[in-house]
Automatic annotation (TrEMBL):
Annotated source species: Pseudoalteromonas gelatinilytica
Protein name, UniProt field: GGDEF domain-containing protein
Keywords attached to this entry: Membrane, Transmembrane, Transmembrane helix
Transmembrane portions of the chain: 28-46
């Protein structure tokens, strides 16, 4: 897309060409009206493009923020559950920590209870 200031050069060239063919007021008014309409159209097109681009960026960021919050919640729940399970096993093993059979039995129970360990 051309910079907006190049439209001024375009209009200037058209005016100079029309003046070189003779001063025709009707042609000059027509060129000015056409260029004003064109500039207005391009300005509105560019403005709507910028607004839509910003809305798309904002919506995408909000979606990513919601997804990240969901992942944080799921991870927090997983870690809390694992911590509770390990705390329960720790309470059971604190009285008889030297009993290798009890340790193996609790390890097997944890492994079979959930796929977390």
């Amino acid at each position: 897309m051309y910079p907006i200031w190049t439209l001024g050069l375009y209009v200037r060239n058209i005016v100079l060409i029309s003046l070189s063919h003779g001063l025709n007021l009707r042609r000059l008014i027509l060129v000015l009206a056409f260029s004003a309409t064109l500039i207005t159209f391009l300005n509105s097109y560019y403005s709507s493009y910028q607004v839509q681009k910003q809305q798309l960026i904002d919506k995408t960021l909000n979606n990513h923020k919601a997804y990240a919050a969901k992942l944080v919640s799921a991870t927090d729940n997983f870690l809390l559950t694992a911590q509770q399970q390990l705390a329960y096993v720790g309470k059971i093993l604190e009285d008889d920590f030297n009993n290798q059979g009890l340790i193996n039995a609790e390890a097997d129970r944890l492994r079979l209870q959930t796929n977390s360990f």
